[in-house]
Amino acid sequence: MIFDRLTERIVKTQCPVCVGLDTALGYLPEELQARGTEGIFEFNRRVIDSVADIVPSVKVQSAYYEVYGEQGALCFRRTMEYAKERGLIVIADAKRNDIGATAAQYAEAFLGEGSAADLVTVNGYLGTDGILPFLERCSRSGKGIFVLVKTSNPSSGELQNLRLEDGRTVYECMGDMAEKWGEGTRGEYGYSCVGAVVGATYPEEAKILRARLPHTFFLIPGYGAQGGNAAMLKNCFSAGGLGGIVNNSRGILCAYKHRGGDYAEAARAATLDMKADLLGVLGEICARS
Amino acid sequence: MIFDRLTERIVKTQCPVCVGLDTALGYLPEELQARGTEGIFEFNRRVIDSVADIVPSVKVQSAYYEVYGEQGALCFRRTMEYAKERGLIVIADAKRNDIGATAAQYAEAFLGEGSAADLVTVNGYLGTDGILPFLERCSRSGKGIFVLVKTSNPSSGELQNLRLEDGRTVYECMGDMAEKWGEGTRGEYGYSCVGAVVGATYPEEAKILRARLPHTFFLIPGYGAQGGNAAMLKNCFSAGGLGGIVNNSRGILCAYKHRGGDYAEAARAATLDMKADLLGVLGEICARS
Questions:
Q1: Three-class SS string for chain B?
Q2: Which residue of A has its CA nearest to B150?
Q3: Chain A residues with CB inside 8 Å of B161's CB?
Q4: Which of B61, B158, B177 has its CB closest to that of A102?
Q5: How far is A105 from chain B (nearest CA, A)?
Q6: From the CA of A188, how many Å to the nearest CA of chain B?
Q7: The predicted structure's pLDDT at residue A227
Q8: What is the residue extent of each domain of chain A?
Q9: What is the pLDDT of residue B83?
């Protein structure tokens, strides 16, 4: 069960950090840029090697690969496979959404036996029809999904913070749906196979959601470049510092640009700094199972 | 401007039909199935050849290609390029959604110079941050997007039909956002570069949206296999039968399975039947520009 595995890794590493491989070509040193998607893979490979013993997981953002067509698809697959080989839990950040047979194709693409991903992000605007095909795939594979609930971006409230007639906000409603979709799939640590994306940049909403969704594991974007800091994201975690993992992409991948030196070493140093920052707020991460 | 071009094609062909290339391997005759993505491309190519003179556009559903990794990405690209070569307007049905620099990568992938797509479907749950990068790309290329507003599936109302405190439903709110995102981009026929997905299966909602969103062109799924018929989808159109195009995938691709004969010829016959069915309700399609 994926969130059991992820929780165990987090406790072991004491590092609830997900390294985001949103590897834009412009992030690479010039000599790698010239090699296109081969350069992107080489960059990812060395970053993965550099952090594999200190973090539980990586998140690979599909958009940065899709832009290169079939070469990008190959680089995306190889990156996920390499991260898996190095023992990391792999999140495919694809925010897919569709219905019925089409959603089943996406579920197969991202969570099927041919994919190295353990988790995929999905968008729940279409309702249960768009989620069930993923859950069916998860039930056979022990994998999971993250549903977008409250996203980290400035305009996320335009729809997500509107209040419904029944008193809930749209993000609370989506959170309730995520909690419900996960029913009957809880693992050892109490989390179902349906997680939620909850931005570090909205601590009030995170507090509400953390209390409201006790069986939902949070993927937390927005730390660093987007303005989220450790104090703000404490609200995303349950007691013992469990129930969440914080993504950081640019802050890790581009650390060498201001720290100097080798990009992979700088990525490791930035990750360790982030770990210290988070643990300063969360304290020791303890499983209560 | 894409919706001018699409409107002119619809008036010329008198056929507001989009052929959906949701080409599942199981839809193919056995001899083509054995050839994998090469077989899928061959099937698409012959269907495109068979309908290119009678329809304005095709919609290529990304999920059915992504499941084959880099081979699928190649087949997706070749299918779109071939449809474009044959003079068709190409809709990439990808329902992408992300923010900022990541959304810009998706916009480049689907609407950039390297892509044969004229339009891409997107999901607006993340708000304006997720849409602006697509609009910036559209302003340079004359291309457009379709925002998911009211989808055709049975559970679409779980979120979309909830009523907000301000009296609007969530789908009305999303429709209002689409109309607003399109401001300042209207073409000759009054439609902006931001269209909406509005399911044929919900005629009451379609009627409300058609009146509410006068400058928004509708992509209408749900005809045929999902239960939508011509009478139900009249509400999706403006006066003169303008402002919408109806997708049909399985009903066209799999027509040969019950009609017998060659799949490409059966696809053409099914398309002509659908055209007659729609025109029976819409009457002659007339541009008022």
A1: CHHHHHHHHHHHHCCCEEEEECCCHHHCCHHHHCCHHHHHHHHHHHHHHHHCCCCCEEEEECHHHHCCHHHHHHHHHHHHHHHHHCCCEEEEEEEECCCHHHHHHHHHHHHCCCCCCCEEEECCCCCHHHCHHHHHHHHHHCCEEEEEEECCCHHHHHHHCCEECCCCEHHHHHHHHHHHHCCCCCCCCCCCCEEEEECCCCHHHHHHHHHHCCCCCEEECCECCCCECHHHHHHHCCHHHCCEEEEECHHHHCHHHHHCCCHHHHHHHHHHHHHHHHHHHHCCCCCCC
A2: A126
A3: none
A4: B61
A5: 6
A6: 30
A7: 80
A8: 2-282
A9: 98
pLDDT tens for each residue of A222-241: 998 778 788 888 999 998 99
- Taking the model in full, what pTM does it have? 0.97
pLDDT band at A190 (very low <50, low <70, confident <90, very high): very high
pLDDT at B226: 77
State whether A69 and B77 contact (CB < 8 Å). yes
Topology of the domain covering B2-282 = TIM Barrel (3.20.20)
Interface A-B, measured as beta-carbon pairs within 8 A, has a size of 176
Question: Residue A104's closest chain B neighbor by CA?
Answer: B63
**Model confidence pLDDT, tens digit, residues B246-278:** 999 999 999 999 999 999 999 999 999 999 999
Residue A5 to chain B, least CA–CA distance (Å): 26
Q: Note the pLDDT of residue A225.
A: 76
Contact criterion met (CB < 8 Å) for B67 and A22: no
Query: Of residues B59, B95, B207, B234, which has the active-site annotation?
Result: B95
- Our answer to whether residue A12 is catalytic in this structure is no
